[in-house]
What we know:
Blueprint: E1 2-10, E2 20-28, E3 35-36, H1 65-71, E4 80-84, E5 88-97, E6 100-107, E7 113-117, H2 119-128, E8 139-145, H3 150-162, H4 169-185, H5 189-194, H6 198-215, E9 225-226, E10 238-239, H7 240-251, H8 254-257, H9 261-278, H10 280-284, H11 294-314, H12 319-326, H13 340-343, H14 365-384
Parallel strand pairs: 3-7, 4-8, 9-10
Antiparallel strand pairs: 1-2, 1-6, 2-8, 4-7, 5-6
Amino acid sequence: xxxxxxRIYQWGYGEGVEKTALYITTMKAGDLTRAxxxxxxxxxxxxxxxxxxxxxxxxxxxxxxxxYLMREVGVFPTSVLLNVRGSLEFKPTMKVxxxxxxxxxxxxxxERLMIIDGQHRIEALKxxxxxxxxxxxxxxxxxxxxxxxKFDEMLNFYIVNSRQSKIPTDLVFRHLQTMxxxxxxxxxKWLNVAILGEKExxxxxxxxxxxxxxxxxxxxxxxxxxxxxxxxxxxxxxRDFSLSVRILKILREKAFSQMxxxxxxxxxxxxxxxxxxxxxxxxxxxxxxxxxxxxxxxxYTNLFPSIFAMCASDGEVTKERFxxxxxxxxxxxxxxxxxxxxxxxxxxxxxxxxxxxxxSKATTEQMTSLITKNMAMKINIVNASx
Length: 386
């Protein structure tokens, strides 16, 4: 593939940042059919994109890109951003300024074009070509980069999209995890300054802990977490993002943010292992119970710091000690200091979608906080009576 275009250099002043060459040109839509995305999956954790959103291509409706091409003005004035990981040859023919040259761009036919930004526009063109073959000649403004490290692709994807609030939040957590690891391993200090603040680092660590729970033999979630971009399957108990969000809340507390991530992950695994022992039906039939849905997940995550503190006061933060306190929730008490729904045993029936109290299906933060407050009070009441 040969085309004419400009090579320009851009740069910033972050520590460790170097000048970047960009190649500005146009390509025929037909030539862009070879462009692909690098999708994030559990087997490709260095990927950084999700599959295309089919709703963007619905034939009817004002939001359809295909309809925009086939029935409206069909103009894409902004360029798509592609990366050539392998060989990209540029032969200058004219110097325009100190940082801009006109020249000939050559990309070998076997080189893959990786889409950093613009996948929906390119996909809409591909689909529209079936009805209008002339669209193969459609000129698309293109900005090319020539990064050999896919991390640089991911970083540019993150910067271009996150600052327009377009990236799905679950994928952002994965990007932050990759960036945190890269900043440590390769000492990319500007990432810490510009992107990885305390909030972002906590999100990255939350995702690291989720991966631990997915892989650790002692975890009730081993092999049962639905990862970002994966279809829901029967063996899945929970989504990685749902778990990350809740663990992130734990990490906001100073005592936990300063703990070693592996140690904290082990304690969280022990905590949820106890819950699996106490509520076997909720884990066996997660669709018919709300313990592993928003209500239970939020409530028990909110309760974790209190249980952890009780165990720490006893000098024994162990799985057995977690169980000592959590099983108190399954007792029957008669005390007006907790709501009537919480005086009954909080067991599998309590978390049943069919038989549980209405509050066991609540999903707002206010209501899940109320559940946590009543559960903590119930444990204190039962503990004091022993």
